[in-house]
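INFO worker-7 received task bundle
INFO bundle size: 2
INFO processing item 0
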Amino acid sequence: MSTKSSSQSGFGLRKAYLVAYNAASAVAWATVLGRVAVVLGMRGAALVPIGVNDFARTTQTFAVMEIFHALTGIVPAPLFTTIMQVFSRLVLVWGISYPFPQLNGSPWYSSMLIAWATTEVIRYTYFVFKQFGDNAVPYFLHWLRYSAFLILYPIGISSEVAMMYKALVGPAQGFASWYPMALISIMLSYIPGSVILYSHMLRQRRKQVGGASLVEKQKKRQ
């Protein structure tokens, strides 16, 4: 009896933690998105870093928790793709944006943050509802979770590569002798990396909102 009670308590704590974590992350990324949208609309891309730079970097850095979650099994996320996505973003915020702040006034920086923030607001909000059961997730949010990436991923990836390229042909040349080659290596890794991430999401989309999803629903009805 005590084992059962302990198991239920553990499940409750896990769910409570994930609700809090995902809700906080959704709010943080919504703040990033709101700041970028307001400053971009009113003052232009050149002033976006003033309103969002440090906050966006901090928000993205906390995403290392995603790796911990996947590693420990707190969430059923694939470890390899999680590491890939988190690492590539950390390279952008700490390896490009931080040492070369002069690049952050580029429209590519704004489009990168908009793509990231929109993706994460959808994803984290989806996971908040998911903790209360599959039926708790509104259909429009479910659809966005597995469809918005079709547009947002290409925008985000192209913006990331553009930021690295601007660093490569600009300030990175005088930063450190090894830095340009490191950037080139990372940029080249985007060729297989982006294909892996995009293919993974396409498989998930087919499973969740495509033909495979319909077949699964029909089986449950029988």
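INFO item 0 finished
INFO processing item 1
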Amino acid sequence: MNQWSTYLLGWMAFLLYFYKTNGKIPNLRSLGKHESMKPWICISIYQDNKATCVFPFIYKGSTYFSCTRVNSFSPWCATRAVYDGQWKNCMVEDYPRCIFPFIYRGKSYKNCIMEGSFFGKLWCSVTSSFDEKQQWKYCAVNEYGGNSFSKPCIFPSIYRNNVISECIENESNKLWCPTTENMDKDGKWSLCADTRLSSFVPGSPCHFPFNYKNKNYFNCTNKGSEKNLLWCATSYNYDKDHTWVYC
């Protein structure tokens, strides 16, 4: 195969992929300013892999609660709530956590499932209702990330002079665990495997995550409660819809 044939074959593969993911062949002459910065461009000055993903983010009028392959050969996310050309490639640490329980085909699930999986891999929804948002990810079956080379969780463990026996939520809404018997002494931790997690929170009608005063909540909260009682929103945007229930 000569160089010209290889060039044509590469363009044919690109056009077929774009048609598959978008339903139409792109008009390369009509690409606007932001179109030219799309993540399917291999190299971009707007790519910042040191930044963190922002979920949910809006791209071309659609809302994404997880990394996406739209217009890209590899998963990516925006680093702004509204995509403005700044993005990064997704690593396993960048994906949002599973939301349990979640609704799939009208049934509630409290853990990762293989139902509906084309490749027979475990997956979960990243919102309370897959039927509504259709946002999902494959489940991590082992611990990952952290500073202990992805070692598994060790329970019980000492953390802040208390004995803990389950994963803990950090300020980024990630669930992590100690990887030694004494976190206070060793300081070693990993992010929890999705398969280790189960439903910690009430199901319907809570909507997780929900946004309250520009912050995402993955569990019930007492923030803003006059009676200091736990509550949750019943839609993603509490500030807009103002619908909620006590947990």
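INFO item 1 finished
INFO post-check item 1: The first helix runs from residue 3 to 22.
INFO post-check item 1: The radius of gyration is 21 Å.
INFO worker-7 idle
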